[in-house]
Amino acid sequence: MAVTIDDVRHIATLARLGLTDARAASIVAELNTILGHMDELAKVDTDGVEEAIGVGAEGAPVRDDKGPPFPLARSLDAFAPSVRDGFFLVPRLSTHESPEEA
Amino acid sequence: MTARSCAAVRADTAAGRVKAADTLTKAIDRAREVNAGRDGLNIFAWRDDEDARRQAATIGDRLADTTPGALLGVPIAVKDNIATLTMPTTCGSRILEGYVSPYEATVVKRLREAGGIVFGKTNMDEFAMGSSTEHSAYGPTKNPIALDRVPGGSSGGSAAAVASGIVSIALGSETGGSVRQPAAFCGIVGVKPTYGRVSRFGLVAFASSLDQVGVFGQTVDDAAVGLGVIAGHDAMDSTSADIAVPDYTAGANADLKGLVVGLPKEYFPSSLDPQIRAKCDAAIEHLKALGATVKEVSLPNTDLAIPVYYIIAPAEASSNLARFDGVRYGLRLTGDGLRGMYEATRSGGFGPEVTRRILLGTYVLSAGYYDAYYRKAQQVRSLIARDFRRVFDSGVHVLFTPTAPSTAFPIGAISDPYEMYLSDIFTATANLAGVPAMSIPIGRIGGLPVGGQFLASHFDEARMFTAAYALERALGAEAHA
Amino acid sequence: MTTSVPKSSLDGWEMVVGLEVHVQLKTRTKLFCACSAQFGAAPNANTCPVCLALPGALPVVNKQAVGLATRAALAINCEVQPVSVFARKNYFYPDSPKGYQISQFDKPLALRGWIEIGTRSDSSPIRIGVNRVHMEDDAGKSIHDRYAGATAVDLNRSGVPLIEIVSEPDIRSAEQAGAYLRVLKQILEYVDVSDVNMEEGSLRVDANVSARRRGDTKLGTKTEVKNMNSFSGVERAIDVEFARHVSVLEAGGVIEQQTMLWDGSTVRPARSKEGSHDYRYFPEPDLPPLILEQGWIDKARHDLPELPAARQARFAADYKLSDYDVEVLTSNPRLADYYEEVARAHGEPKAAANWVMGEVMATIKTSGEDISRFRVRPFDLASLLGLVRDGIVSHTAGKQIFSHMVATGDQPAQIAEREGLVKIDDDSQLSAWIDEVIAENPNEAERLRNGEKKLQGVLVGAVMKKSKGRADPRKLNQLLTTRLTS
Q1: Which among A54, A64, A96 is the nearest to C261, CB-wise?
Q2: Is the peptide bond before C322 cis (omega within 30 degrees of 0)?
Q3: Do the Cβ atoms of B391 and A47 come closer than 8 Å?
Q4: Which chains touch B (3 or more CB pairs under 8 A)?
Q5: For residues B449 and B192, is the Cβ–Cβ distance under 8 A?
Q6: CA of C427: how far to CAs of B46, C433, C463, in Å?
Q7: Taking the CB of residue A15, how many other CB atoms lie within 10 A of it?
Q8: Fewest CB atoms less than 10 Å from the CB: which of A59, B77, B248, C442?
């Protein structure tokens, strides 16, 4: 499966990585080389093999529904790029407020 | 020159024979002596000697403790992807430049509780993606043994801190070999625990199903003491195992009678550098002399480890690194609106290797490719894990292999990404299967260190350490010759 | 856009609707961290490394969230899976701090449930299937109009536990959609897993709408409609979107699979970039699979409180109440509990129903309080009803006593004594008042004596007034009649 420049632009968008045209072009070659090595996997018979998933047979540990919350040694102002009245600020979304449009 | 061992420092500090401040001064002096700074070896991303002195000053109050902490008065270097309350945690990246974590990793908390002094954050490949520490936004780290060579990666800074004699113990992290391979390149001990043995809470995630905090030590004993302090269940990490931590130093003087050592043939291919093979053969003779039974075994799916690793790790990384978006912490660059901010921040903040892996990871998870790549890789991963289970179930206790296919290569020598990935060829299998593994120095070739690797079954670190202790003892000075 | 399609044209088409309902679970703390999940704190006050998605933070599952999610799934007849798997849903948005939501994908908590929403004309029940129920963490809030040029992000809500209930595309009309939502909300209230308040955001609805010609079995292309904030809004949005589908299809066009946003009267497409819906789901590596013992699931099913349908049937059978009364009294579980306590203590279900649906509900409607906080407790109301039934106070006096009980919280018998509302049926007292009234109203008395029966009421009323409502009406009428005929 060869990766095209359109694929790279598409995944760069999904990953919110701004790529210049030059970089995108060189990435196409890099990814194709790397993925070429992955094609060995296609030849392996994995019929009926479970995906490696999870740790331990007991499953996810659960905790009681109570605090106290894990403390922060510093308030948001100490590390947030832009805070006002306790809110994080980001540039206004230019269109409607839905995740699909961000 | 080497730093004093953890055990010696602890004993002397507890007995009042040595002050923590003096041990610390020695470390600071040594760092200056070897030129650990930015224009020299470039070992540390950040040091705060004032903060270290403040920590050392509190040790005096701890002398009255009934049981002195196992690392009492010991200065420890910490890889810069492990959250500390003082000093930034940058992960070798611009995107976290100056970010000081408002909480601390469990492993750091445990080090401090044991009386350890956090001495600096060490340089690393950006977000732990690399095998040479050349991919840091803050410049490459040099191998203290040979200044024109890489120290290995991604935990190159921590390895160099120990190899240059500044500290006797350092924390690193492993995802595909990032502690063992630098340990081999720098001639020191490096341990990757069983997946789940050590808490990941506060370890900045690269590939969550592979990551573990690892320990570097000047000697096997230093590493054993260090692992004993940080290992154990943590309620803040749902993948951490609720299994008791044995005393990893207990087997320090045992011989190896009754130990069955397997040599997986796939790790001794005909293409293996003959000099490395010779060093391994010599080590194997020592193991036999110590009483071990040595036999050839097979881990047939070993060859698939790199493709499997380089699908799973970037896939998980692409998701783990999505939180670096300029909204709540770290670098923020502006662009056209919100989307512009995301793209400017992430393209300005991430280096080329990280960018490459995020794209690769996003691709293999994307619609239409998930089954062929990610799902397939996780299935093959099961096969790799099964290989180990079968071998350990057949009566083999530990495995012995070379740690890396080469000695430390020159800085700048490898530019092809895939060629760099192949450095992990002997190490990545342990991360994929979750088994513990460690590298100890077994000799030098042209002055460059060679590492020999032990692997054991899940949570059998004690047996792995016993074998390593014995081999280290048997090799003596040969390990650095 | 608004679309106006003649009804006759719509008739040839069938609406196919599935609903996705997100429900906030009422836990004390968040799903994956111990921060408070309570509403109303200062912005970003309820945050920690985990829900801020600081580097190195990890999720740990809240046991109570699992319990509530399981209870909800069982209450809508789902098969709760012993093993379910959390999965990452990857997307970028400022109120999604990790850059992914932890949800469930291939292996959700529960499958294959159903909800009954009424009966067809042949009395067969209308069942709407539930495809799945899964757990996930909520996003924070993005506020767009507070600061010029910026969006303000509050992560207090980030990490609050949600369940998503996905119906099968079994809904065939807006009315059915509304019924489904009302029944679902009621069930979830009964099992006490959520506040299920759409205005407050603890219940959210997205609708998947498609159209096909009547008789077709194949599903048409669906669109997703979002941003409704009431059940009636959902109903109207569905009708509008269906009409839009029909007008496009009738004109020979093709429905584009996209997200539509409701603005109160119309739908418009969400401006989304192509491919932005690729969530790249994969199993959450920071969480092992969630394993529930079958015994635990069985006990949870056994421990379910009485569900609305069962309670309604029981009220009808045991209390012999009308359909209307049953519907009103079971509309929420606390009201039903209140009523039952009154009915049992008093012994006369119909009288209890009248008072609860009348006086009680009128009072709490005005005050806006919840019945569980209502000052007049069931046992005390039953006492009052007893006083009325036993003739100790008149019905009218009873209402006055009730008002006092609301105001003071005092006992009815106490109030009756204190306010002098105890019914008077003492012959001599009543006779004395009758004499007074006759003396004061000689004309009316004369006319009544001569046969104008309707004036009885006037004189009775006058005595009642003198007695401040306490005169026993029956006795009074008897005595007056006797007095005037003698």
Answers
A1: A96
A2: no
A3: no
A4: A, C
A5: no
A6: 102, 10, 13
A7: 28
A8: C442
**Cβ-based contacts of A16 with chain B (< 8 Å):** 322, 325, 339, 342-343, 346
Q: Is the ipTM of this complex over 0.90?
A: yes
Instruction: Measure the CA–CA gap between C231 and C233, rounded to whole angstroms.
Output: 5
* C150 close to A89: Cβ distance less than 8 angstroms: yes
Among B228-237, C251-260, C412-421, the range with the most confident prediction by mean pLDDT is: B228-237
Distances (CA, A) of B147 to B141, B183, B186: 9, 16, 11
- The average confidence (pLDDT) of chain C is 92
Across the interface, whether the CB atoms of B328 and C53 are under 8 A apart is answered yes
Q: Which residues, 6+ apart, have CB-to-CB distance to C379 below 8 Å?
A: C341, C345
How many Cβ atoms are within 10 Å of C353's Cβ, its own excluded?
22
For chain C, the domains span 7-297, 306-416, 427-485
User: What is the phi-psi region of residue C255: left when phi exceeds 0, alpha when psi lies from -120 to 50, beta otherwise?
Assistant: beta
**DSSP labels, B335-399:** -SHHHHHHHHHHHHHS-HHHHHHHHHHHHHHSTTTTIIIIIHHHHHHHHHHHHHHHHHHTT--EE
Q: Which CATH architecture has domain C427-485?
A: Orthogonal Bundle (1.10)
For residue C208, give how far its alpha carbon lies from the nearest alpha carbon of chain B (Å).
21
User: CA B91 → CA A5, B58, B80, B100, C169, distances in Å?
Assistant: 30, 28, 5, 11, 48
At what angle are helices B376-393 and B305-320 packed, to 10 degrees?
120
Name the helix (H) or strand (E) containing B223. helix B220-230
Residue C2 has what pLDDT?
Answer: 46
pTM above 0.95, yes or no: no
Q: How far apart are CA C200 and CA C23, in angstroms?
A: 11
| Domains observed in chain B | 6-254+401-480 (3.90.1300.10)
Q: Which residue of A has its CA nearest to C31?
A: A65
